[in-house]
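User: When convenient, might I ask for sequence and structure tokens for a protein?

AI:
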Amino acid sequence: MFYLQLLLFSGLAFFVLLPLMKRTMTISLDTDWLWRRAGYSLYKALEKVFSALAEVIAVQRASLQKLLHNIAVKYLGQPHTADSKERGMFARSWPVGTTALWIAGLLSAYVLLYYL
């Protein structure tokens, strides 16, 4: 009953005092104004910097992809032929010990990166 009375009397006070709450045509400067102006300017400046950085990264990425593709084709992508002396890395036959070492190393790197 107490909370119902509190709710009803606060609602009554609001509606009784509603005519006294008139809108005034003023501009109130608050700290919100700083965030709207300075924040927007900072956002635009950071957007320009990051878009320029993205363009540089895109150019570097394209050249790096081309370099890696050339390396992969030259060293890893050569097919296995009986008469060729140089074969691609994955075309060779590897001993079991080397394969087990590679698997242990890759799994250890995965576990290390997973827990970081």
